[in-house]
User: Which sequence fits this backbone?
């Protein structure tokens, strides 16, 4: 019975050691991931798509969950950013929270702007918006390999006047 208990202890310690070794939780890794995320968010606000070359891996992926869109590769991601900058010339992202661990970074932000240009399938509305969102990114070898944005598309479309605000009907 004692041998079984010792085996469980040994397996538990080995598992803990493997998990600790597999996770990259160094302060350098966390600060690097934070810096990459901040640099990308700042690029959205400064309308500098060239930053994509500095922060994304060559075959990096940008995923916009709300729009159901996945973009692969630096050139395509830069094109996407430039399309947004043309449609929303005052587009801005304010980071409110950021944290990272083990090669992953998450940030909460508020995006705002005025849609004065067209998007595919969405003509300019001339209306302003302010929408909260969050991003999660995987960082590997000093670059972002996958960035995912989450935000409330319904709120965005309501603020742009594309979808009417609906109040409950009285009976």
Assistant:
């Amino acid at each position: 019975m004692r041998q079984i208990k010792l085996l469980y202890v040994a397996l538990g310690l080995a598992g803990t050691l493997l998990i600790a070794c597999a996770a990259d939780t160094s302060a350098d890794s966390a600060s690097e991931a934070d810096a990459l995320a901040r640099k990308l968010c700042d690029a959205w606000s400064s309308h500098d798509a060239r930053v994509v070359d500095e922060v994304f891996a060559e075959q990096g992926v940008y995923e916009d969950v709300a729009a159901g869109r996945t973009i692969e590769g630096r050139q395509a991601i830069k094109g996407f950013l430039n399309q947004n900058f043309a449609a929303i010339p005052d587009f801005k992202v304010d980071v409110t929270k950021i944290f990272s661990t083990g090669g992953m970074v998450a940030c909460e932000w508020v995006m705002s702007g005025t849609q004065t240009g067209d998007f595919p399938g969405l003509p300019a509305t001339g209306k302003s918006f302010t929408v909260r969102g969050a991003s999660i990114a995987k960082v590997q070898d000093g670059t972002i390999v996958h960035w995912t944005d989450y935000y409330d598309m319904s709120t965005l479309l309501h603020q742009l006047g594309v979808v009417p605000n609906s109040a409950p009907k009285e009976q």
In short: The two ends are 72 Å apart (CA to CA). Residues 2-22 form the longest helix (21 residues). Residues 1-27 have pLDDT under 50 and may be disordered.
